[in-house]
Amino acid sequence: MILSVSSGLIVGVLIHAIIQKIQPASPEILLNLHSDSGCEMFQKVRHALRKKPRTLKLELVGAGEFSQDMVLATHSLLIEAKRGGLKLTTQAHSSLCNGSLLLWLIGDKRIIRSNTAFFEVDGIDEQSDDDSDCMSEEDTPFLNRQERVYQSNFREIIRLINEYLPVKELAGRRLEMRELTDYGLLDSEAGDLQLLALMNGKA
Questions:
Q1: What is the pTM of this model?
Q2: Contact 53, 25 (CB under 8 A)
Q3: Which of the four pLDDT bands, split at 50, 70 and 90, describes residue 8?
Q4: Which candidate, 20, 86, 141, 166, has a CA 20 to 30 Å from the CA of 128?
Q5: pLDDT tens across 79-125, in order?
């Protein structure tokens, strides 16, 4: 009887170990908006998704913005993975705007830093080329093409953000935790816990 129980335990442990080895790990990706390039962001996400994880955590940190083209390419990768069953958690350790905000918004579970973090969306008119008056005639056609691509990408990012937030109402304003909770982007209980942690000096 004792031998039978011991054998059963051993078999159970072995099966559990095999399952753990077969199942894809749940990776965490840290994206530094200050030092990572848009291509590095895209490659990090693509590499993690190749392992077909069931869950993925995307952490955003640092001051800056990724290129809009790479944001849209990364967004496409993540949306496709979510259609395949991926559960995505996004966590903002820094304030976000525009494309980096879009990456946070697509999370199934969203987390933000509770002390001073804010989100912001620019208006369409704010995205212009300040050097347009300094272009030579030679450079004008090329730069105009670049500007058209830039504007097209930005408008697409704004359109996607608008699926979560009323961009026209919020353009140029700073959104903080309570407003995000009001818009249903943060679980109210989770938001209350983050505020409580801040008040207790733990955030």
A1: 0.73
A2: yes
A3: low
A4: 166
A5: 999 999 999 999 999 999 999 999 999 999 999 887 756 788 887 65
What interhelical angle do 68-83 and 140-161 show, nearest 10? 40
Instruction: Read off the pLDDT band of 196 (50, 70, 90).
Output: very low
